[in-house]
Amino acid sequence: MTTRMPEQVPIDILAQFERVTDYWSPKVVAQVNDQYVKVARLLGEMDWHRHADEDELFWVLRGRLRLEFRDGVAELSPGQCCVVPRGVEHHPVASEECWIVLVETVTTRHTGDRATPQTRTIEEQLA
Amino acid sequence: MTTRMPEQVPIDILAQFERVTDYWSPKVVAQVNDQYVKVARLLGEMDWHRHADEDELFWVLRGRLRLEFRDGVAELSPGQCCVVPRGVEHHPVASEECWIVLVETVTTRHTGDRATPQTRTIEEQLA
């Protein structure tokens, strides 16, 4: 029996959502350089937060995501993404269930500078 | 009239493919931290190459992509991705037209260590 290297085993993105059992609880599906690619299911809202030194990419696969900023808003539909730059406060709101892909630095804490009940450790996100 | 910040303007990934006029000629659609997110249309094959210091993520949206390695192969269907680790030689083959998203370091030269007729500058990829 031959052993396949990790790069030889395709990662099915939608199948990765089966690992997601809670809302606002991302799971890491891949690492590329110093970034994690994560999947998450969202419903309701996350507290206002910012990441001082890290950009965060949101890509909606299903449902809709409203990203509120202090001076505006982005409404994301399936197939749309946006990058929240470092330092920019944002308030994610999913009034219906939303499936997203995130790209963010391996060190990024997904609830930003503050620990909240929604905060998940990297170990939980890798599980 | 209010000015919307870049993060407030959703990026429609499929619409970005309208910028892609040649095969194997990626276009940058976003930057997140030190990584570019790019879209590309592939048909035929690219020379064997490697990126000494950079991982490269391939995510297939349409068609199929065969990534050949010296010791195996990955066959990617729509919705599947894989990460080619730094240093690993690979040979992308698209026997039918394939639309992909790439995530790679801003410094990555997409044809690897060698300049080939398929090589595109970052300026061309940003255009």
What would your notes on this structure say?
Two copies of one chain form a homodimer. By secondary structure, chain A is mainly beta. Chain A is 7% helix and 45% strand. Chain A has two helices and eight strands; from the N terminus they run βαβββββββα. The first copy, chain A, has helices at residues 13-16, 122-126; strands at residues 11-12, 27-32, 35-45, 56-62, 65-69, 72-76, 80-84, 90-105. In chain A, strands 2, 3, 4, 5, 6, 7 and 8 form a seven-stranded antiparallel sheet that branches. In chain A, a hairpin with a 2-residue loop joins strand 2 and strand 3 (35-45). The two termini of chain A are 27 Å apart. The mean pLDDT of chain A is 93. At the A-B interface, strand 1, strand 2, strand 4, strand 6 and strand 7 of A face strand 1, strand 2, strand 4, strand 6 and strand 7 of B. Strand 7 of chain A pairs antiparallel with strand 1 of chain B, so a sheet runs across the interface.
